[in-house]
Amino acid sequence: MNRVKITVLKTTLDVELAREYGAPGLGACPMLQAGQVFYADYAKPEGLCDEAWKAIYQYVFALAHGAGKELFYYGDWIGQPGVAICSCNDGLRPVIFKLEATQEPATMHYVPVR
């Protein structure tokens, strides 16, 4: 299992949907900023939004275990091996992430609860 690099590519706001459904003053995600980098292995990286993690973790684990050495989904999604572009599940202000497989071995930074 290897670490996966998670880069925040951009934060977005669907102005039309936010105008209709959002709370007054809603803006792009205040928790993450373009350019932030996290590394994931056995657990959610510290500082990464819980909801974003729930939306992307299956791709992180797939990449960590060697998926995507070729291309995801028969080559009809992402054109670069070892890469996935994903977003969190906030329909009004999704954050877009680039996930990249690395050759860095994963290490546990916590003690599992038994």
Write a structural description.
The protein is an alpha+beta fold. Helices cover 19% and strands 26% of the residues. The chain has a 4-stranded antiparallel sheet with strand order 2-1-4-3, covered by helices on one side. A hairpin with a 7-residue loop joins β3 and β4 (95-105). It is globular and about 45 Å long. The two termini are 22 Å apart.
Residue-averaged pLDDT: 91
Radius of gyration: 15 Å
**Uncertain residue segments:** none
Terminal CA distance reads 22 Å
**Class by alpha and beta content:** alpha+beta
Order of helices and strands: EHEHEE
Could you say which overall geometry the principal axes of the C-alpha atoms support?
globular
Q: Characterize the main sheet.
A: 4 strands, antiparallel
